[in-house]
Write a structure and sequence with these properties.
alpha/beta; Alkaline Phosphatase, subunit A
Length: about 625
């Protein structure tokens, strides 16, 4: 085999081999995510790997180097494998803050398994081959890969050069807000470094000294945007018309707006929601704004009208704060607040978020008869069954209540037990498609909601309660559903962003029989202000800081979306905008035609305003006081 000690170091050393192995894997990751190779970014990938491997070569003792180098390879392989799965499932670049969600993985293991494809295991092929060769050569008593001494000064120079290149690239590209572009330009590991650096700098910098100062500055900024024309009315439309009424909110898992009114194989997909929308205020142009916390972020936004940070689930990152929110505002009006979820309350740290928001009680897994509907446990029917018992008891006390229900039966991967299906798709075109499974799961969720509404009516709660239904986020995963294929299967135009992020928002008030379709564009931040207006809660009088608008009293709107879209993305009355490195090289799509909009320069102010709002929300969260944890 030759003598390793007389061969050139770079060709025979573990330093070289491991560096090449990891570098090739980073190139593979680029192909998986970007479907192309940016060679300048590839060079920066190499610099980051050389820096890490060089530090091992410089500072790890000789006897431990082999283990250190292979450990680096194993760890890098696991990280890149996880990054591929993460991007496949969420469409975002994984960062260290995603570690906060590791304990949730078992709860969504079926969803994670769907993201695993044979090609994702390519990151471990060299490890498997090395293990096999080691086993064979060990049996033949052949000594391989002996270490080759290298002068420390040479390696130090290589490491210093690699670190310098990486540091300069981070400084040059670190201001690019679009996370996907920044990761492509910097390389995966350099991007992680830039993310850590940015997070550290943000944690040190706080624009506000306290919540009072934050409130005045935020209000001053918001007052400059023309949300509503001056119509001479002193009181907002519908203000306080439902004051003192119970509030029942149902957050439906993975519910997209196109499902309402949709017909599949000659049958209405959502007959219950169709009827509810036809006799309620139905907001057709509302879009998801969730961050890393997904469903829990949707709960957070509905209850606070504050932006999710995007970099961390709000329940995890801010569950230790005194969160302002609807439960506390209603408590001041004499309400009792409760929330229901069939999963364990520790999932997404809801055991921290619910007390922080001011809910009086929560009902989680132990309170429900577990019919083992899916990985979360009990079905939506069981959720509502337990819920109606508790609501009836609350109503008997004679005080108004706010009840939040978070459903789970229509959660990805949308597998409904065969005996629980209420619609069965027979067309071959739906066979083995996520679209078909999704439609069946939404139909079941609709059926279960119908049982709940029936129980509310039977128990006299329907006519004394505002009932709100909305979707937490999109259902059809983009990695499994090409928009053109979804368009073909559904027979309707389906845009990869506009249609996917469009969620329904329905508000039914007592005694309402005729519905009203509201086409004003809005986001999930706007839901709570809309409901608060009906209940007669004045944010102006209470000094409540919020970033959403009452959609019944808004003529023009703009709001940001991040995490599932690059930072800087926004929606206004006309377009959904996604930035490139900045505004000028971004892309806009019409909300009405779903076609690209070439001339979007007139929306530049909206871009900077949306960016400012998200930054102000982040800064406001920093000055919220810590709460005493039980």
């Amino acid at each position: 085999m030759g003598n390793d000690r007389t061969a050139p170091f770079l060709w025979k050393s573990l330093f070289f081999r491991i560096t090449v192995f990891i570098w090739v894997k980073l190139i593979v990751l680029r192909v998986f995510i970007y479907h192309k190779i940016d060679w300048s970014g590839v060079a920066l990938d190499l610099a980051s790997v050389v820096a890490a491997a060089g530090l091992i070569e410089l500072f790890v003792p000789g006897k431990l180097k082999r283990a250190a180098f292979w450990s680096l390879n194993v760890i890098a392989s696991l990280i890149l494998f996880a990054a591929t799965l993460y991007y496949t499932h969420f469409g975002s670049i994984v960062t260290y803050t995603s570690l906060y969600g590791l304990k949730q993985v078992l709860q969504v293991s079926n969803s994670v398994k769907r993201a695993m494809h044979p090609e994702t295991y390519i990151f471990f092929t060299d490890l498997a081959a090395a293990a096999l060769l080691w086993f064979v050569w060990r049996r033949r008593s052949i000594k391989v890969w002996s270490a080759f001494p290298l002068r420390k000064a040479s390696m130090a120079a290589v490491v210093a050069l690699a670190l310098t290149v990486s540091a300069l690239s981070i400084r040059a590209e670190g201001k690019v807000r679009n996370e996907l572009i920044r990761a492509e330009k910097l390389g995966f590991f350099n991007y992680q470094s830039s993310f850590v650096l940015e997070a550290w700098e943000n944690s040190r910098e706080t624009k506000f000294t306290d919540t009072q100062q934050a409130s005045s500055i935020i209000q001053a900024v918001q007052s400059k945007f023309p949300y509503k024309r001056d119509d001479g009315e002193e009181q907002p439309k519908l203000f306080g018309t439902q004051q003192g009424k119970n509030l029942i909110v149902v957050q439906v898992e993975s519910l997209q707006d196109f499902t309402i009114g949709y017909t599949v194989e000659g049958r209405p997909l959502t007959p219950v929601l169709n009827e509810l929308a036809g006799s309620s205020y139905y907001f057709t142009n509302v879009f998801q704004q969730i961050g890393q916390g997904n469903t829990s972020d949707a709960e957070f936004m509905f209850n606070t009208s504050l932006y999710p940070a995007g970099s961390i689930p709000m329940s995890t990152g801010f569950g230790n704060r005194e969160l302002p929110g609807l439960p506390k505002l209603l408590k001041a009006e004499g309400y009792e607040s409760v929330t229901f979820h069939v999963n364990d309350v520790g999932f997404w740290d809801r055991d921290k978020m619910y007390p922080a928001l001011g809910f009086d009680r929560y009902f989680d897994k132990p309170y429900f008869n577990n019919d083992e509907f899916n990985a979360f446990g009990a079905s939506d029917e069981q959720l509502y069954r337990t819920g109606i018992q508790q609501l009836t008891a609350l109503a008997a006390k004679g005080t108004p209540f706010y009840a939040q229900f978070v459903t789970a039966s229509s959660h990805h991967p949308f597998v409904i037990p065969d005996e629980r299906k209420h619609i069965r798709l027979t067309s071959d075109k739906y066979k083995d498609t996520q679209v078909g499974e999704y439609l069946e799961s939404v139909n079941y969720a609709d059926y279960a909601l119908g049982t709940f509404i029936g129980q509310l009516k039977a128990n006299g709660l329907w006519d004394s309660s505002i009932v709100v239904v909305y979707g937490d986020h999109s259902g059809l995963k983009p990695q499994y559903n090409d928009p053109d294929e979804v368009t073909r299967l559904l027979g309707i135009p389906y845009h990869e962003y506009v249609t996917r992020f469009n969620v329904p928002f329905i508000v039914h008030v007592p005694g309402q029989t005729e519905g009203e379709t509201v086409r004003q564009v809005g986001g999930q931040l706007d839901m709570m202000p809309t409901v608060a207006n009906l209940l007669g809660i004045s944010f102006a009088d209470s000094g409540y800081v919020h970033f959403g608008r009452d959609l019944m009293n808004t003529d023009r709107n703009v709001f940001g979306i991040r995490y599932y879209l690059p930072t800087g993305s926004f929606v206004n009355n006309d377009v959904l905008f996604i930035p490139g490195e900045g505004f000028a090289d971004g892309k806009a799509v019409s909300l009405t035609t779903l076609e690209p909009v070439a001339d979007f320069n007139k929306y530049k102010k909206d871009y900077y305003y949306a960016m400012a709002l998200m930054k102000l929300s982040d800064e406001y969260m920093k000055v919220l006081p810590k709460r005493v944890m039980e």
